[in-house]
Specification:
Blueprint: H1 2-19, H2 31-37, E1 39-42, E2 45-50, E3 60-66, E4 79-83, H3 96-113, E5 118-119, E6 127-132, E7 139-144, E8 152-159, E9 166-171, E10 178-184, E11 190-197, E12 204-212, E13 215-216, E14 225-227, E15 232-236, E16 248-256, E17 260-267, E18 271-275, E19 285-290, E20 294-302, E21 309-316, E22 321-322, E23 329-332, E24 337-343, E25 351-357, E26 367-374, E27 381-386, E28 395-400, E29 405-411, E30 416-422, E31 428-430, E32 432-438, E33 442-446, E34 452-455, E35 458-467, E36 471-480, E37 483-490, E38 497-500
Antiparallel strand pairs: 1-38, 2-7, 3-6, 3-8, 4-5, 4-7, 8-9, 10-16, 11-15, 11-17, 12-13, 12-14, 12-16, 17-18, 19-25, 20-24, 20-26, 21-22, 21-23, 21-25, 26-27, 28-35, 29-33, 29-36, 30-32, 30-35, 31-34, 36-37
Length: about 500
């Protein structure tokens, strides 16, 4: 019996380092003992999934992958992203020739999916792969050992014409079981596809619910969606319901297994981009990185619980925080999507949005996102900024080039100091380090210093060294045909370390 108890505790410590369980206590020990004796150790395994980039033949996609330099686990390790398998029709094929042809195609797809598209070779140096057209695949993969802590990946797609026009960027995400997407739409002017990617070797089942300003939308097709093993599916949200709703909230959950989920939104008048999931429901949210030249900013929020929410809306600007005229507060009814048109709220200065409860003792959890437009008329371009958690100890974002990146840092509470490291370039260059001070209640937008002798692309790593918390995002921008195309990615904590309890304990508690 004693050896069984000891092996369970040792196994729990290993599991924590791999999966991120916070603390485990010895049998009979006080609840706080594990927390007090816990040590921060690098994670030993990380998973990421990336959606299929585009259905446009004009699409040009760049994948980038990166692990920041620092203390890793093993001296060895791998970090590979591989293509997802195509979803095939599972109906029986009566024609033997067609059945054989399908079998051969499946074997070729399996062989292709076993070959990495991207493989990080060493911490501190990004790797790049490119793909053109509509056949670029969804990706899924795992990092282990010294390449696991802080592993990040990004796909950036440029489409210069057509309904999918725009600069589309999305951070590859960790698979999970619960996702909220405020800002999605089933309006006739929108084509919003929700991408579900399953990284595992067994199929998973997901449910999708849609909530508009009047509550849940009626749908008979959102339940029990099967995502086959190592595959990705894209589902048009407007086919889930007969109701055309301009601003709604999509909720994705899994009944079994885990998936990566993200929404690809195309707007007839403002281009296209990805909508990534909001931070988990919370009474206070921060949405960082509204561009200084934004011509339209729309806030979409949702209260998933049984209580309504009343929130204070504040813009954290360059020098101070203030509430937008006419939109100082927002009332969000339970299980209904609320909307506020903030227009050109930044007025030539960068900013971030902070949502806090009007009554501090009534912090109703909410989720939120911003729909941001630059330009006017037929020169508009759209991007989305979800509520995001703080940078914490460290966060990284790949795929930066010499002059197309802007880093937004906001300190909603106390003044903070932030260390920003530009990694070595994918094809050459030496890292560069800068330190910034972000004053309390403000947003600082900077153009990062590129690596010395940069060749290729580089990654940015942000670390909070004092004060804070700090919330951050990175925007990429390119001018094409008079359109200021852009995309925004947030930088939440990379969770590269995990608390693992000490194995020390009083063995007398194990005696029978």
């Amino acid at each position: 019996m004693k050896s069984t108890h000891l092996s369970l505790i040792a196994g729990a410590a290993v599991l924590a380092a791999i999966t991120g369980f916070a603390t485990v206590t010895a049998p009979g020990a006080p609840a706080e003992t594990g927390a007090k004796s816990a040590a921060l150790l690098p994670v030993e395994r990380s998973s990421l999934v990336c959606p299929a980039p585009s259905t446009s033949e004009l699409a040009e996609t760049r994948y980038t992958s990166f692990t920041p330099a620092g203390e890793g686990g093993d001296a060895k390790g791998t970090a590979e992203l591989k293509p997802a398998l195509p979803v095939v029709d599972d109906e029986d094929e009566s024609d033997p020739k067609k059945a054989k042809k399908a079998e051969e195609a499946a074997k070729k797809a399996k062989a292709k999916a076993d070959k990495p598209v991207l493989a990080v070779q060493e911490p501190g140096k990004p790797v790049v792969a490119e793909a053109d057209g509509a056949d670029a695949p969804a990706l899924a993969g795992t990092a282990t050992g010294r390449l696991a802590p802080g592993w990040a990946a990004q796909q950036t797609t440029e489409v210069t014409a057509g309904g999918a026009r725009g600069l589309l960027g999305v951070t590859c995400t960790a698979p999970g079981t619960d996702f909220w997407f405020p800002g999605a739409s089933t309006a006739k002017s929108r084509q919003d596809y929700i991408h579900l990617t399953n990284p595992d070797d067994t199929g998973t089942v997901a449910d999708i619910e849609l909530y508009g300003p009047e509550g849940a939308l009626k749908s008979d097709v959102g339940d029990g969606i099967t995502v086959p093993a190592r595959s990705s599916v894209a589902l048009l949200l407007s086919t889930f319901t007969t109701e055309a709703v301009d601003q709604l909230t999509a909720h994705v959950t899994t009944r079994s297994g885990r998936i990566g989920a993200v929404v690809l939104s195309a707007d007839d008048g403002a281009g296209s981009d990805w909508i990534t999931a909001s931070e988990d429901p919370s009474g206070t949210l921060v949405l960082p990185g509204i561009p200084a030249d934004a011509t339209s900013v729309q806030l979409v929020a949702f209260a998933p619980g049984e209580d309504d929410a009343d929130v204070k809306v504040e813009l954290l600007g360059k020098n101070t925080a203030f509430s937008p005229a006419g939109n100082a507060t927002l009332h969000i009814k339970s299980s209904m999507t609320a909307f506020a048109d903030l227009k050109d709220v930044t007025r030539g200065e960068p900013g971030s949005l902070r949502l806090t409860p009007v009554q501090k003792d009534r912090a109703t959890p909410i989720v939120a996102a911003l729909r941001v437009v630059r330009g006017k008329g037929d020169k508009q371009e759209v991007a989305y900024i979800p509520a995001t958690g703080p940078v914490g100890a460290r966060a990284s974002v790949p795929d930066n080039q010499a002059e197309d990146s802007t880093l937004s840092l906001t300190a909603p509470g106390a003044t903070a100091k932030v260390k920003v490291t530009a990694s070595a370039g994918s094809d050459g260059g030496e890292p560069a380090v800068e330190t910034y001070t972000v004053k309390a209640g403000t947003t600082l937008a900077v153009t990062p210093q590129a690596p010395d002798g940069l060749k290729g692309t580089y990654a940015l790593t942000v670390e909070t060294t004092s004060g804070g918390p700090v919330h951050a995002s990175r925007s990429l921008a390119r001018a094409e045909g008079g359109v200021q195309m852009f995309t925004v990615q947030t930088l939440p904590d990379d969770r590269g370390t995990v608390k693992v309890p000490s194995a020390r304990q009083d063995l007398s508690v194990l005696d029978d």
